[in-house]
Amino acid sequence: MELRQLEYFVAVVEEASFTKAAARLHVAQPGVSAQIRRLERKLGQELLDRSGRLVRVTEVGAAVLPYARAALAAITDTRLVVDELTGLVRGHVAVGMVPSCGGFSLPALLAGFHEEHPSVEITLSEANSEELVHSLRAGRLDAAFIALSGGDVPVGLATHVMVDEPLVATVSPGDPLATRGTITLDDIRDRALISLPPGTGMRKSLDAACAEAGLTPRISFEAGNPGILAELASRGLGVAILPQSLVRSHPARLCAIPFSYPELRGQVALGWRVDGPVSPAARAFVDRVRSTTRQPDTVGAGTV
């Protein structure tokens, strides 16, 4: 029985898919299937039910799963102890990011960390905040740049705010609202709104503010890329809700109108797990990012 066979088995169970498990492990799918078949032959029992669209664990597989996880955790802990005692920073750091990760240079942060720790492999993936939070809690990510709503930090995570700025109503220069100094949510009650999709921090801020004001936002356009939202607004297709810094970078094409009440704010923060083993490489990455700003860390008591 080999450790990689246990690792592949756990990954397939967690992903409910050979394809997704192979992508997560950065190996070819046939290799994953072959290794798990060898594990099943050694144990004399099938661990996975492959008959449906999703791969499911069998009764025997469910009994084996906690022992497989414990074995992998023991190996990880052993490596962590050795690295701690020798002062080595090596291994792998899995980082996540939201699409609207603006206000600072993530490539510069990653490049700076790589220069300091060339033996550490860094991987980067993109998803919305809800998905990133789930991946952090599940241990699939070591750290992630997530969008927060109203300072609401997810349970089980600690965060370090990187960007905190107003969200503004954004229109084309010819829009009737373009000459306004400030507006309220009621002023755009009947307007077509352009917003990030549900599961994002900015959308949660908008939805929460509208709920408090007793109105239902009329979302006509959704896109995960803030640049697309800005382009839609510049062409007069509606009112986009965007970070103030993004709008100010296009002064000839976009007009930003602050909300007088309630104030909408957008935050991007680095998040990491409070509990559970954290590798020296992951800790080194978090420490480097935290050193770039003087904001205090926050431990989560809310949800995303």
Describe the structure.
Keywords: DNA-binding, Transcription, Transcription regulation. Residues 1-58 form the HTH lysR-type domain. By secondary structure, the protein is of the alpha/beta class. Helix content is 40%, strand content 23%. The strands form three sheets. Strands 3, 4, 5, 6, 8, 9, 10, 11, 13 and 14 form a ten-stranded mixed β-sheet that branches. Helix 1 crosses helix 4 and helix 2 (18-25) crosses helix 3 (29-43). The protein is elongated, with a radius of gyration of 23 Å. The two termini are 40 Å apart. The mean pLDDT is 86.
Annotation, overall tally of beta strands: 14
Overall 3D form? elongated
Number of helices: 10
Structural class: alpha/beta
Main sheet: strands, sense, barrel: 10 strands, mixed
Please mark out the parts with pLDDT under 50 across 5 or more consecutive residues, or reply none: none
Q: Quickly name the level 1 CATH class of the largest domain.
A: Alpha Beta
CATH topology of the largest domain: D-Maltodextrin-Binding Protein, domain 2
Fraction in beta strands: 15-25%
C-alpha-based Rg, rounded: 23 Å
Question: Roughly what is the average pLDDT, rounded to an integer?
Answer: 86
Family: Belongs to the LysR transcriptional regulatory family.
Pfam families: HTH_1, LysR_substrate
GO molecular function: DNA binding; DNA-binding transcription factor activity
Organism: Streptomyces liliiviolaceus
